[in-house]
Amino acid sequence: MHLLRQFRLRRLWRQVGPHLAAAPLWLALSAGPGPVGAQTSQAPARNDAVLATVDKESIRLEEIEDREIHELRERLHEAMSRRLHRVAVERLARRHRGISLEPPEPVNEAQVREFYVRNGLETRGTYEQLHDRIRQHLQEQQRQAYLEKQFSEGVRRGWIKSNLHPPGDFLISVSTASAYIRGNPKAKVMLVEFSDFQCPFCERAQPTLTRLRQLYEGRVAFAYRHFPLPFHTEADEAALAVECARDQDRFEPYHALLFENRAKQYVPDLKRYAVAVQMPDQASFERCLTDKKHQQRLNADIEDGMAIGVSGTPTFIVGGYDERTRQVRGELFSGALPEQEFVARIDKYLLRIAAD
User: Taking the CB of residue 256, how many other CB atoms lie within 10 A of it?
Assistant: First the structure.
C-alpha cells in the first residue's frame, strides 16, 4: 500500500502542482464571471473533424483528443472569445449610441470591503494592504461582465454574428462493474461519483447528491466508486470497511457514518461503526476488514479513476449508461458544485436520451 500511495502522490502532484504553484490563492477564492461567451448561444464545435488521412482513412479529432488537449482547446476558445468580444464591442461603440466598453458605475468602497470580508482575506493581509489589488480585480471583473452584456446586446439586435464556437464535450467512458449503484439500475443516464471518506468537499457534496437522487428517482442511476487520496491516511481502510459493510447490505448507513466522522477512521473506529449500524455478522465484518478482502476492488477503482483523469475528489462523470456493457459515456467534472450545476448536466443527457 505504501508504494501505491507514493506512486499516486507523485502522479497527483505532477498533475496539479504547477497549477497550485502558479495560482494567486486569494484571487482563487473569488467567484468571477462565468465562461466567456456563456451569455450568448453558441453551438459546440464538432469533435468529428478530420485532421488527416492515412491511405484515405480518416483520423478524427476525437481519436487524438485527451483531457489535456481538450482543456487547452477550452482555454484557447476563452482567450479568443475575450479578444473577439472586445474588438466587436469597440467597433459597435463607434457606430451605435448607447454601446460602450466601460461600465457606467465604478466599483465603490462598500464592494471592496464586502469582497475582503466575504472571502476571509484577513489572513492574507490588512484591508489597507489588499485594498488596491481587490479594487483592481473587481474593476476588471465588472468591466468583463459589462463587455459580455454589450456583446450579447449586439447579438440580440442582429449587429453581431459570431462564428466562434466552443469545443464540444470531451466524452470519456468508465465502467461501473464494481460500483455501488443507487436508484434504477436500468436508467439510461447515470452519475458516477469518485469519492474519499476523509475529503471535506466530498462530505459537503453528500446533501446535494441526496436531493438529486430524490429529484431524479427512477430516471437517473447513481454509482459510487472509491478514490482515496494519498494524503488521507485512513481513507483506504475506510473504503475497504464500507465494502465489507456492503457485503451485508449495510453500505448506506455505514457510508453516512463515515462522512459524519471524517477525523475518526482508524481500524478500532471502523469496527465500532459496524456495531453502530447493527452489522448482522460483526465477526465476518472484522475478518473482511483484517483480510483486506476488497483490496482488488479498491485498486481497480483507483486505477480506473487515474486512467480517465481523476486527480482529486469529489470527481463525477455524468452521461449515458449502457446496461449491457455497464459503461457510462459522458463528461467529467469535479468539486462540490451547486445543485443547479448538477441539474444542468444531468438534464442535458436526459434530453439527449429522449431525443434518440
Answer: 14
Gap between the Cα atoms of 37 and 31, Å rounded: 17
**Per-residue pLDDT tens for 294-339?**
999 999 999 999 999 899 999 999 999 999 999 999 999 999 999 9
The DSSP annotation for 299-351 comes to HHHHHHHHHTT--SSSEEEEEEEETTTTEEEEEEEES---HHHHHHHHHHHHH
Q: Which of 98, 81, 103, 86 is nearest to 36 (CA)?
A: 81
Per-residue model confidence (pLDDT) at position 46: 61
Q: What is the largest CA-CA distance in the chain?
A: 80
Residues 157 and 290: their CA atoms lie apart, in Å, by 69
74-78, 100-104, 281-285: range with lowest mean pLDDT: 100-104
The grid coordinates of residue 19 equal 497549477
Residues pairing with 296 in the sheet: none
| Those residues with Cβ within 8 angstroms of residue 17's Cβ, 6 or more apart along the chain or in another chain | none
Strands 189-195 and 180-182, sheet pairing = unpaired
- What are the distances in angstroms from CA 89 to CA 36, 37, 96, 158? 14, 13, 10, 13
Burial of 236 per CB tally in 10 Å (0-12, 13-18, 19+):
buried
Look at strands 220-226 and 172-175 and give their pairing.
Answer: unpaired
Q: Which residues of 108-119 are buried (b: 16+ CB within 10 A; e: fewer)?
A: eeebbeebbeeb
Nearest one of 233, 79, 237, 230 to 167, comparing CA atoms: 79
55 CB-near residues (< 8 Å, 6+ apart) = none
Architecture of the CATH domain 172-355? 3-Layer(aba) Sandwich (3.40)
List where CATH 3.40.30.10 sits in the chain. Answer: 172-355
Unique residue bearing C-alpha cell 454509482? 223
- The one-letter code for the residue type at 134 is I
**What is the DSSP secondary structure assignment for residue 96, as one 8-state letter?**
S
Q: Copy the grid coordinates of residue 328.
A: 457510462
Q: Which three cell numbers stand for residue 64?
A: 487524438
